[in-house]
């Protein structure tokens, strides 16, 4: 079992004036056998981080380590692929012209069974694992439902015998009635196989359901990260609080209004990643920031990220609570 | 396969945003396959072109066998004569029959053109896929070379190569082949690049599939269609180019002859007997057209279905609804005069086993300024209902309704749809679609797209319309509206585009906004903004809202009334503030229970709805939900429950509605472990 660790990862797109840092100096650890839920709005860099992990987006700087080894070098060779990814849209992530069994079979590493019968048996085992009838192996994606397709995608990811799986919005393209079954399956597989997982979703309720750790991303940076229960029960960063307030509540009420000042700032559009705001990146939208409370002028100039390690949940906010020093240690 | 996406205000052009071929292919039929190629034969132009091409190819194959003797026969008595009974197209300077010579020359002309095309396509293919196979740096070098080569005019390139390779047939084939290669290389590169970014290619790469295999198994099969089509078109051009070279004396040399050479020979005597030049000229044009048109027709059939006009076809008989009984639902009539009133709405499509009816007798009504939500799984017919109401169901779909009234105007009689009706739809009905990126024309400024509506429907002048567009953008809280109006859609973020889409709907004077999954592509914070905006527009301007969503939370929090759809019908209708507490239909309750929320029990599996949604072609008899319903009894499998009022404002289509109160979050619909997906 190995952990997936992002060390100061930066991913840049474009060059010159059009350049933007989709991911900007992110450090994040997916402990072995645990699920890290990554939330954040669209464009915040969640998918870029996922793609960087599996080598689909080039790193401008930093490293991605799996079990202490650079994933870029590990990916070579035909051995097992310890890091796998499941994509958002199972309609798009399976080749429409290929039988789904073949799609899974081609992901079986060369060190695995090499004869036809062995590979077929392996495909059957994988299908069984994700709760699909082995007879479906001969189907083409068009003949399967969305949920079945996502199961195939999961089977393909498991074919490489991974220790960590990156799951990028894997239920958001699915129907509500199917979403539940896929979430149950993911949770079940993760626990049984002791998989590490980076689970990306914009739906907090879904993330809450599967994750041990929750990380919140805003404009290319992780602004808060901690044990799922703690982060959701006691969010430190104003953006996390915004997300929680926007999450669907079950009491039948309309969205809880987070109080005065809202509307004025939250309706501001997500900032342009080409022109990152100075100081705290969240300040143009922050309901407790300098635009609402003039006394918090430091947010305009001072980046809260460098000091985040000392705050609860590593929050990138000057006004988040400080982390209490562990008893018996001096700081 | 680039699909042109555009959407206008309802009542104008076709709005159905189709995703790429793979997606549209995956819904109902198989992947784009052979069937579509034969679609060519369905259009008259395609039929003619294919017939012509077949004739040309047959002639090329058999012409020389049949007529080479007559084409070579020298008639010394008749040199350089005009058309006559003996020689239809006259004779050449040795007295040979021009007509037969043209027929016989078909083989050489076509064969050389094809040879050159094959050479060009093969070279282009190699250059085109090279960047995908080579490393990044080498790939870039190849791309640069191709880009330079493409910049030269093809003819210039051909002449240049002709000189390089020397005069003669072989040289000309090489010249034309290499001259067409850069174009193909560019095309291939573009296609490869676009397919390479598709998820399934990324997925294969992540799964550890090698570059070469990705290329041959995933990329090439998925770009084969456009390549073949373009090669066909290219063959037509090669034919023309080859004739040109031969005509100039750079191509085929005596004693062989192709059309170009015949043309050249004929031209010397053009004033005395034009037929000798006209005949090969016509042959070149006809054969070239045969290739070109066939290619174009195939491109059309395989690629983009062209926009059909808005069509509400005449009602189909009840028989067309298939085996499922179709009973209209009575619309709930609110007190005020409704903006939209629909009864017995049916939408059918022809299917391989008779017509399927995804919307089976649906009734709904929206009052002035009211907000009504529609929820249901995919395939329940939500979007089709919206399209049918706005008259945007594409051919070959048919829409039929007992009543379909918008602002008191019946939209039922499609044939007689007047300009006035279209105008009414254009100004009073606004549609907002799921993906605002595909709903805007990417090449037009946002402001221009908005102001166009005001110009067309409100007769405003250009400047006034622009001012109104800016004002509307400001109203939907686009910051710096003047500057933003001058930007293009890709410069907007997703949430901003969606707001611009709403602004677009507000350019007329809408009485109803139909929003089909307007926030599905957005994240929670932006979703909240967009829903609030819709709410504000509704209360400020008294615009009614029909909000379609698969997300029951969104609907419950935005709308006053909720319609739950299953298998093309409304199964429950109730005020949204009672949705979570008083829903009685088993399907509604299941939908509510299955969605994870912030208080879901983390220690147990999520409740799931067993089974699969109904496919429109196979609606079970009796209650459509019966196979998945935990409360089903015998009667449910035989008798179809009608939608009936259970109490004021609450209608249910169920024989055994739930009688308890609140839907408990942990209400067990089924034991998830026995469901197909779960395992012990
Ligand atoms: N052009 C078409 N030709 C044939 N069948 C169609 C067409 N458009 C839709 N259908 C079928 O009609 C049914 C209902 O489609 P519709 O798009 O209304 O569903 P929906 O409830 O909006 O689903 P989703 O949430 O996925 O958008 C589906 O089974 C679909 O396959
Ligand atoms: S640092 Fe200031 S602006 Fe940034 S989140 Fe904290 S309070 Fe808001
Ligand atoms: S009619 Fe019967 S099968 Fe249909 S929803 Fe009601 S109880 Fe279930
Ligand atoms: Mg839909």
Automatic annotation (TrEMBL), chain A:
Pfam families cross-referenced by the UniProt entry: ABC_tran (PF00005), oligo_HPY (PF08352)
Official protein name in the record: Peptide ABC transporter ATPase
Matches recorded under SMART domains: AAA
Keyword terms, alphabetized: ATP-binding, Nucleotide-binding, Transport
PANTHER family: D,D-DIPEPTIDE TRANSPORT ATP-BINDING PROTEIN DDPF-RELATED, TRANSPORT ATP-BINDING PROTEIN
Record keyword 4Fe-4S present: no
Domain ABC transporter: 4-244
Species: Streptomyces toyocaensis
GO function terms (MF aspect): ATP binding; ATP hydrolysis activity
Gene3D superfamilies in alphabetical order: P-loop containing nucleotide triphosphate hydrolases (3.40.50.300)
Entry's family note: Belongs to the ABC transporter superfamily.
Keyword Phosphoprotein among UniProt keywords: no
GO BP: any one term: transmembrane transport
CDD domains in the cross-refs: ABC_NikE_OppD_transporters (cd03257)
UniProtKB/TrEMBL annotation, chain B:
GO CC annotations, alphabetized: plasma membrane
Keyword Protein biosynthesis among UniProt keywords: no
Highest taxon listed in the record's lineage: Bacteria
Record membrane topology: Multi-pass membrane protein; Peripheral membrane protein
Residues covered by the ABC transmembrane type-1 domain: 106-295
The keyword Transmembrane belongs to this UniProt entry's keyword annotation: yes
Similarity section: Belongs to the ABC transporter superfamily.
GO terms (BP aspect): peptide transport; transmembrane transport
UniProt name for this protein: Peptide ABC transporter ATPase
Ranges annotated as biased composition (Basic and acidic residues): 1-26
Membrane-crossing residue ranges in chain numbering: 45-67, 110-134, 141-165, 227-250, 270-291
Keywords of the record: ATP-binding, Cell membrane, Membrane, Nucleotide-binding, Transmembrane, Transmembrane helix, Transport
Domain ABC transporter: 340-592
Chief localisation class: membrane
GO molecular function: ATP binding; ATP hydrolysis activity
UniProt subcellular location: Cell membrane; Membrane
Span list, region Disordered: 1-31
